[in-house]
Write a sequence for this structure.
């Protein structure tokens, strides 16, 4: 593997982390341009659905991309682990999707974080579900010299950044000395990381673990083809993770991901947990939700409770589009993902594997549907108080107004009669039962003790007092 050239880029990087200043979290941000020669890969045998993909290097291409490094201002707070995110480009812009959903856990535990512009769309533009908000489009003066050959080389670009952090940390992390390096990615990035795990990781052996968040059934093409292109008839409809994983891998899935729609669902790629694999399917969740567009951008850890509650409030407005229903507004996706990160870290650091969870129940129909309880919520999966002690029906199943409306699921608050039937004694009964369920989820490792107080405060503030 070639060694890239790294150049610090003073000034403000184009990366939408939130509406807060990163300094307010006790972190610094620095951008670096990374240049080198990346290798592509070709299969040496048929790429089967079992994920045991054998690949070999094939050809090289020059590249210049960027990375953004976030690290604690106080170096003594660094916990020794660097999270490396494959930025998501489905919306036509480099999006730090995992940071956005789980930054609270990163910050309070002192992780360093590196965002990688791994794909061509984020740098040069290209096929996406959104507008062209590539780096060159946003700020041509700053990014004119970036050059991305195509996504066939994205796997090695990502590897080279991981190797840089591992072998030459002072060039991007300053005084921080990392012990572990963990790869993460969400949605399209999760599909690329699935291919990376199956075909590239056995060759390069760089990362100490993987968090693959909200993938669907298929994996990304090894040749760099767009996931939005017509499916190749020779490609498997769904791909499992290879059975001989090298390091711990956690995959976290919403209802949208499991059932599918825009893409074949993860249910086609389901496999049993193993020594190095844990899959957590979260009922009541959607691929994206209120946290994605409203809460995460203000969620600093010290935002006023009333602002968080207002941001979680049901909305039928989605990026300028008026929908005939609310998008998913349940909080559990964000909190369970944070627990997954903590569980993966303990697995890597201490060898203690996270709890196992059954998959969500599916019908025997073709295609299968989620099996719902009497309250209209999915059965099975990672159980949390929002589905076991609910005040709303939330789902990963949206409607077809647009691809985005499908990904954001749906939600419906319970009416007064339903709340009265479920909680005859009103808010006091609800909160008592919610607390019991919450504590059971914490004991199981599906939620974190550090989030307990905030979760209870939000639960108390969102119970419809007017129904009492």
């Amino acid at each position: 593997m070639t060694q890239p050239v790294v150049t610090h880029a003073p000034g403000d990087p184009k990366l939408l982390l939130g509406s807060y200043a990163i300094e307010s979290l006790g972190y610094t941000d620095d951008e670096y341009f990374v240049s080198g020669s990346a290798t592509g890969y070709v299969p040496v045998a048929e790429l089967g659905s079992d994920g045991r993909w054998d690949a070999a290097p094939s050809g090289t291409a020059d590249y210049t991309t960027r990375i953004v490094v976030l690290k604690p201002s106080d170096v003594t707070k660094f916990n020794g682990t660097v999270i490396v995110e494959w930025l998501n480009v489905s919306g036509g812009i480099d999006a730090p999707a995992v940071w956005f959903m789980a930054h609270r856990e990163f910050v309070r535990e002192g992780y360093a974080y590196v965002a990688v512009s791994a794909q061509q769309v984020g740098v040069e533009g290209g096929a996406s579900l959104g507008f062209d908000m590539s780096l060159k489009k946003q700020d041509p003066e700053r990014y004119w010299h970036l050059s991305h050959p195509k996504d066939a080389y994205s796997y090695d670009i990502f590897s080279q950044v991981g190797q840089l952090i591992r072998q030459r940390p002072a060039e991007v992390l300053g005084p921080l000395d990392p012990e572990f390096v963990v790869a993460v990615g969400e949605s399209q990035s999760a599909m690329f990381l699935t291919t990376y795990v199956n075909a590239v990781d056995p060759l390069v052996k760089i990362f100490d673990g993987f968090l693959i968040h909200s993938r669907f059934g298929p994996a990304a093409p090894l040749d760099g083809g767009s996931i939005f292109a017509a499916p190749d008839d020779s490609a498997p409809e769904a791909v499992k993770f290879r059975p001989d994983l090298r390091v711990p891998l956690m995959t976290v899935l919403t209802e949208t991901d499991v059932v599918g729609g825009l893409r074949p669902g993860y249910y086609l790629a389901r496999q049993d947990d193993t020594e190095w694999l844990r899959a957590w399917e979260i009922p009541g969740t959607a691929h994206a939700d209120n946290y994605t567009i409203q809460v995460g951008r203000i969620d600093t850890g010290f935002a006023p409770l009333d602002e968080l509650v207002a941001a979680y409030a049901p909305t039928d407005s989605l990026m300028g589009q008026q929908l005939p229903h609310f998008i998913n507004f349940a909080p559990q996706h964000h909190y369970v993902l944070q627990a997954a990160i903590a569980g993966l870290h303990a697995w890597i650091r201490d060898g203690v594997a996270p709890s196992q969870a059954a998959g969500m129940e599916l019908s025997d129909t073709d295609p299968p549907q989620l099996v719902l309880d009497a309250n209209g919520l999915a059965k099975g999966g990672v159980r949390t108080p929002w589905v076991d002690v609910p005040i709303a029906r939330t789902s990963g199943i949206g409607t077809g107004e647009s691809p985005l409306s499908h990904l954001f699921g749906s939600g419906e608050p319970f009416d007064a009669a339903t709340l009265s039937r479920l909680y005859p004694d009103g808010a006091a009964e609800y909160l008592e039962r919610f607390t019991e369920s919450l504590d059971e989820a914490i004991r199981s490792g599906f939620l974190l003790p550090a989030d307990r107080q905030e979760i209870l405060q939000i639960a108390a503030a969102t119970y419809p007092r007017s129904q009492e």
